[in-house]
Amino acid sequence: MTTRVESLIEELSAVGVDIVARGLALASGGNISARIDEDTFVVTGSGTWLDRLTPEDFSVMSLSGRVISGSASPSSEWKLHQRSYAARADVNAVVHVHPQHAVLLDALGHDVRLITLDHAYYVRSVGTTPYYPNGSDELADSAAEQAAHHDCIIMGHHGCSALGDSVSMAFRRALNLEEAATATYRALLLGDTKTAFPAEALAALHHA
After folding, report:
1. What are the counts of helices (DSSP H) followed by strands (DSSP E) for the chain?
2. Using the 8-state DSSP alphabet, how is residue 130 labeled?
3. Rounded CA gap, 5 and 35, in Å?
């Protein structure tokens, strides 16, 4: 195992603990990955709990779908990660989690509204896909199609995929997507159906 792979596994494992602590995944739900180079990526193994990850819980795969190394079988969602990397050369990490408010709003036909500066800056826009079985080509392909235009994708009745140029950025986007969904849910409870970050401010958006 190379130093780079070891470093990525360490970073992914730390994020996995935070994902579960924040309620973005339960038990063995969710899976996370990072690009190693232009041809390979490392992904969590099948059935692994994100807050209990060890180096043995990861698989290294090629973008052609071949397992290169690792004692664990790759997550059943490996195609979701593989095709996101193939679609976006600028993406170096994929965080796939099961955020309850985002999935609920989408299932009820409500858009997740970006309300705060952080929501707008990190999420920017939200793509969606219909429900497809987990691990299916349809799910991976439809998410990759949405990834051409969005860094956050909600997969119907399932979860979300957040993309970033680093593990930390992908995770920040997942966090802000769910926070935006929670804010939208609360706004709907108050009877508000329109409030969102000013559209005219998006073009000049920057963050400290």
Report:
1. 6, 8
2. -
3. 9
- The residues near 66 (Cβ < 8 Å, ≥ 6 apart) are none
pLDDT tens column, 3-13: 999 999 999 99
* Domain residue limits at 136: 3-201
Using 70 as the pLDDT threshold, list the residues of the chain that sit under it.
207-208
DSSP state of 74: B
- What is the rounded distance in angstroms from the CA atom of residue 195 to the CA atom of residue 185? 12
Asked if residue 158 is part of any domain, the answer here is: yes
Q: What is the CATH number of the domain that holds 153?
A: 3.40.225.10
CA–CA distance, 101 with 117 (Å, rounded to integer) = 19
Determine if the pTM surpasses 0.90. yes
Q: How many domains does the chain have?
A: 1
